[in-house]
TrEMBL record:
<feature type="transmembrane region" description="Helical">
    <location>
        <begin position="82"/>
        <end position="104"/>
    </location>
</feature>
<dbReference type="InterPro" id="IPR011701">
    <property type="entry name" value="MFS"/>
</dbReference>
<feature type="transmembrane region" description="Helical">
    <location>
        <begin position="362"/>
        <end position="384"/>
    </location>
</feature>
<feature type="transmembrane region" description="Helical">
    <location>
        <begin position="141"/>
        <end position="163"/>
    </location>
</feature>
<keyword id="KW-0812">Transmembrane</keyword>
<dbReference type="GO" id="GO:0005886">
    <property type="term" value="C:plasma membrane"/>
</dbReference>
<feature type="transmembrane region" description="Helical">
    <location>
        <begin position="270"/>
        <end position="290"/>
    </location>
</feature>
<dbReference type="GO" id="GO:0022857">
    <property type="term" value="F:transmembrane transporter activity"/>
</dbReference>
<feature type="transmembrane region" description="Helical">
    <location>
        <begin position="428"/>
        <end position="449"/>
    </location>
</feature>
<keyword id="KW-0472">Membrane</keyword>
<feature type="transmembrane region" description="Helical">
    <location>
        <begin position="116"/>
        <end position="135"/>
    </location>
</feature>
<dbReference type="InterPro" id="IPR036259">
    <property type="entry name" value="MFS_trans_sf"/>
</dbReference>
<feature type="transmembrane region" description="Helical">
    <location>
        <begin position="209"/>
        <end position="230"/>
    </location>
</feature>
<feature type="transmembrane region" description="Helical">
    <location>
        <begin position="38"/>
        <end position="62"/>
    </location>
</feature>
<feature type="transmembrane region" description="Helical">
    <location>
        <begin position="396"/>
        <end position="416"/>
    </location>
</feature>
<dbReference type="Pfam" id="PF07690">
    <property type="entry name" value="MFS_1"/>
</dbReference>
<keyword id="KW-1133">Transmembrane helix</keyword>
Length: 474
């Protein structure tokens, strides 16, 4: 495993003068190290989550509210609150599933250890996405979302570590850029098509558009995952993953002191990173979750799905043009200044949305939102890959799901506040959430920029001392 990874990593470094487009398309020529092969699974998975969350779930929530009031702990939820709480319950399961499956995949030392989890989880997610189409009540929606999160993140947890397994440390920013490029392409393209379908959807007169949407998502999900599994799998093929802890070798037990010395500092840095990530995700999630209702209530669109479709195109296209250059330049010049730019663009876009009243200005602001999303997606994933250890990469990367849960919890609970403030004064809730998003972007960029600056300074000063420990087996 180590020889194959080393040879392929060297192959990447021999072609530094290729264009950014060629790098994004091809990565390394070696099969298991090809950046696109490692990343294509996320095209389908992200397409399912954004297609369901932004394109279908709001319609399902409105239909559920027509069947009767939705009450949680004695509190009657309106559309924003119901949408937020429904999404939140699934994310609790998502965090646990990522941590659990990631830790199990770390126990297996063999090449391709992540792939069976990815394949099983994706097949389960595909089947549950079809069942999601039959849901009507709030309870059935909740059960479907929880089950989908369970299987989807059973796949996602181990897949998180594919970059660490196969990519040289000096190319992980670039690899993260390619990963997020495919993630955005999947999320953007699938959501655009789903929103177009759902703009024609009617529960009674035109239910077929829902099934067109679900069929599209399932097909793309399975194609993307199978592509990654087939191209990255070892020569011996797939296998049943072992759940037993690997036996410690003498070399592994001979260096406990060096690993114990480095863990406290890495742990503090990683904790700070997770806090900053939670702030950024809370801001981005709050802008995404309530976009459809924002366009309906603030911008005044009669068919907000059409407006949301245009907005998704603008954001996804801009973010897609941002993610790979962000990863490339972060590898070459560092990440500190890029995090500052990400924070400024996030604050600017949030505050500018306070001034919009028509779809045109919203789309213009969407360009800045896309730059913000692209920078944060690539830079945070590159930093996460730098901070975790190789021997337990999937489990430690699974902690990002805790940060996602924390940020998403804040964003989902905000739905209740939006409804309350909107009842007090028209659109006051939307203004409050945008100001909160600006604060979140500012805090995350300050923490991440300082973290990266300190880490780069520490690494530069200790490279000679730490190199032997880093190259030893975990």
């Amino acid at each position: 495993m180590s020889n194959q990874s080393h040879d392929n990593a060297a192959d990447i470094q021999e072609r530094p003068h290729r264009s950014l487009l060629e790098r994004a398309k091809n990565g390394a020529r070696g099969g298991s190290n090809n950046f696109t092969n490692l990343s294509l699974y996320t095209f389908g998975i992200s397409g399912v989550w954004t297609g369901i969350g932004a394109g279908i779930l709001p319609f399902k929530v409105l239909e559920a509210l027509e069947l009767g009031d939705v009450t949680v702990i004695g509190y009657s939820l309106d559309k924003n609150g119901a949408l937020g709480m429904l999404s939140l319950m699934g994310l609790v399961v998502a965090a646990a599933a990522q941590l659990g499956s990631g830790a199990l995949s770390d126990r297996d030392p063999r090449i391709g250890r992540r792939l069976p989890f990815l394949l099983i989880g994706a097949v389960g997610l595909a089947g549950l996405t079809v069942l999601f189409g039959f849901t009507a009540s709030f309870v059935s929606l909740l059960l479907a979302m929880v089950a989908m999160q369970l299987f989807g993140n059973f796949a996602q947890g181990p897949a998180n570590a594919l970059i660490i397994d196969h990519v040289s440390v000096h190319k992980r920013g670039e690899a993260a850029g390619v990963l997020n490029l495919w993630r955005l392409l999947g999320a953007g393209s699938i959501t655009v098509i789903v929103l177009q379908f759902m703009a024609r959807y009617d529960n009674q007169d035109a239910p077929q558009w829902l099934w067109y949407s679900i069929g599209l998502m399932v097909i793309v999900l399975l194609i993307g995952v199978v592509w990654t599994v087939v191209t990255v799998r070892p020569k011996t093929g797939l296998f049943i993953p072992t759940l037993k802890r690997p036996k410690r070798t003498k070399s592994a037990t001979a260096e406990p002191s060096s690993s114990k010395i480095s863990k406290p500092k890495i742990s503090r840095n990683y904790l700070a990173f997770l806090v900053a990530l939670a702030f950024a995700l809370a801001s981005m999630s709050s802008m995404q979750i309530y976009a459809l209702f924002f366009l309906q209530d603030v911008v005044g669109l009669e068919n907000p799905a059409d407006g949301a479709d245009l907005l998704v195109v603008v954001i996804a296209a801009t973010a897609g043009l941002t993610v790979f250059p962000a990863g490339y330049f972060s590898d070459k010049y560092g990440k500190t200044n890029l995090f500052v730019i990400a924070g400024i663009s996030g604050v600017t876009s949030s505050l500018l949305l306070l001034l919009v009243s028509s779809i045109g200005p919203v789309l213009v602001v969407g360009v800045i939102v896309g730059i913000t999303v692209g920078l944060y997606m690539t830079l945070t994933w590159a930093v996460a890959n730098d901070l975790v250890s190789r021997s337990s990469a999937a489990r430690e990367l699974g902690y990002t799901s805790i940060a996602t849960l924390a940020g998403a919890t804040a964003a989902r609970f905000a739905g209740i506040g939006i409804d309350e403030l909107n009842n007090a004064s028209p659109n006051l809730g939307y203004k409050a959430i945008l100001v909160s998003a600006a604060v979140g972007f500012a805090l995350s960029s300050i923490i991440l920029a300082r973290l990266v600056r300190d880490s780069e300074t520490f690494t530069a000063g200790t490279t000679t001392e730490s190199a032997p420990a880093r190259s030893a087996p975990d």
